[in-house]
Specification:
It is built from 19 helices and 31 strands. It is α+β, with helices and mostly antiparallel strands. Among the domains are: 168 residues, GH92 mannosidase fold; 263 residues, Beta-galactosidase, Chain A, domain 5 (Distorted Sandwich).
Amino acid sequence: MRPSAGMALGVALAEAHSFHLQTQQDLSQFVLPLTGTTNGGNTFPGVSLPFGMVKLGPDLYTGSDSYSGYQSTGSFIGFSMLHESGTGGAPKYGVVSQMPAVGTIDNPLADQSVNRSAADVARLGYYKSSLTNDVTVELGATAKAGLYQYQFSGNAAASNVIVDVSHVLPSFRGQGLGQNYLGGNISVTTTDNGVRYTGSGSYDNGWNRAPQWTVYFCGYFDQAATFKTFLGNDSTSDDLQDYSTASSQDSESRLGAVFTFDSANVTSRVGVSFISSDQACANVDAEIPAGTSLDTLENNVKSAWNSQVLSKITTTDTSNTTRLQLLYSSLYHMSLIPTNKTGENPLWSSTEPYYDDIFTFWDLHRCTTSLFHILQPVAYEEFIRSLVDIWRNEGFLPDARSSFFNGATQGGSNGDNVLADAYVKGVRGAVNWDEAYSAMVTDAETVPANNNDPRDTSSSTKEGRGALPDWIDRGFITTKYGRSVSRAIEYAANDFGLYQVAKGLGKDDDAQKYLNRSRNWRNQWNPDLTALGFSGFLGPIDEDGNFTAQDPLSCGGCYWGDDYYEALPFEYSFNAHHDINKLIDLAGGNATFLARLDKFFEGGVSSGNSQFNHTLFNPGNEPSFTTPYLFHFVGRQDLSVKQSRYAADSYYAPTPGGLPGNSDAGAMESWVLWSMIGLYPLTGQATFLVGSPWFRDLAIDLGGGKKLAITTTGGGAQSYYVQSLKVNGQSWNKSWVTWDDIFANGGTMDFVLGSEPVDWATGDLPPSPATESS
């Protein structure tokens, strides 16, 4: 589609908006890194660049899992270089650590934990902790290095920093997910200005059950110090040695070094690498040379976030600071991982980019990866290329990946959905789509080896689709396999993704095959299941091919070995988004489907979800993400706006407890960002459902000089129902737009909002491609 005059005007308007806001204020001031750190949000509040390898922050101990290292209570046990944000399952990383201590250190492996003496200070590019031993720790970071600045009390008997190679974030939930230190080495040498230490540590496990991985480090203290290395275990009290090197070959022998300073002011610069200590030294030497100040690093980090992330969405509507804080804090937290580890992959040499720490496509494919694509088109193409390169070298696409290992495939092979979404929205560049499609076919046709995960020993949880034998041979999944029902609805969406790419590549026979398979979810529909006056839900099927009894309001344990994973049958029975018209038909038609949706959001219906007014809808759970927008498919866009706006207003805030559930690496944040923008994506399709924007104007930078400019008039706190819409200057009567309408070349969307619903969307309903192709 050629840009219209209205589109050109919108581009100019967007550019003016962006220029105005960026010249008037620093967008980083609206980022509150502590947003989502409590109430199970698990976000990382330390210092990192966008998608940066180093995430420098505190590790605290409370006796429960600390997924990002941070906890609002408890004792500091270290400050480490590598973390993830918004993950669950079990902690990951928390390695390459330092810990300040005062006085004489007889046993560095004794409890050296210290409490807070004041609240932590966290702002974009800077972190500070004040400890009860009268030490303050200030942190700064670059992509592959970090800076520690310590201020010891002038009354301290001695100023020490303990470097503990064996430090790792612990897990207390069992299930074999806890990380283990497996061995390492450290070597200390003096320099002209202080001391340098180098070495490595090896570890395993974490949420993806990874085998051994190794990180290398290179640290400098820029003040003179005495030092001793240690090698021993927690009960050893005489393990300090006057050695310049120490090594450990097993997890029973922890090791590190204690550095003692005459100065009350101590600065340490540390680089990390997954390749070698030499590369770690090169990283810190290049990124934080001696004499670099914390202020310089903070300003550099702010500049990077402003230019690379925050400025991608701008507005002149600055009347509501809380909304701006939610907007930019959400952009921040959805851009911390995946981690760009290009040049740091120890497993194979490649000219392709490498991205790691994918948590997880089960969480991200619904609305995060599509926003990643729009806001970061260059990085997103690299990300897609990285996924294909992982398949080339390891045989399967990842559904989740960390420390160079696939793991934690919770449902379908949802990397297929991500690739399909990228394909239908025009991601090309250097992506080899023939190979990308072959990777998807691997997921669709090859049964992965069973990794015998004790949470579900029925089939692989590492990668691919472990329940393929049933899916291919029977067209449904039986209770022989864990998560049988929730996997079935996801496998159907995965196959729809293969249909989309096969069709685009001209593979007509494949396209028909996978389109047919994408309808297999219908075989999992049990018309005899009933709840709350409604009949028909996705249900379990035993190994003899018979439906079994199931309460649609219960998922039992809702875990890996159960029939439904982390969501109710009632929730999953709304998830055939590619075949929605058939779903509506099976559910009893438009009127009944509308009533079913209304019941889903009614308070007092569920025995659980007390924090959400006992609704069946769970805004903290990804299988519920799209359901508020399904009113579109029965002609009630106004109810989609009502329910999505209520969830966003009620359960999101730029506060430590301001997420409705685990961030899941930005999944929650991307959901509320789409609400604020006024659109919602349907993954694997080019369709976006129209919501209701929160701001008077928004300019979205699409890259390559393209912009999407969104304006509203008549909006207010309770005035958010769409009265009319123009797209690219033309009156619009559909409740949906396509990629080509507003994103492929940029465009404009001009809303008129009001306090009462009106029937403005009188045109065609959103497409249901798997139904319409019947």
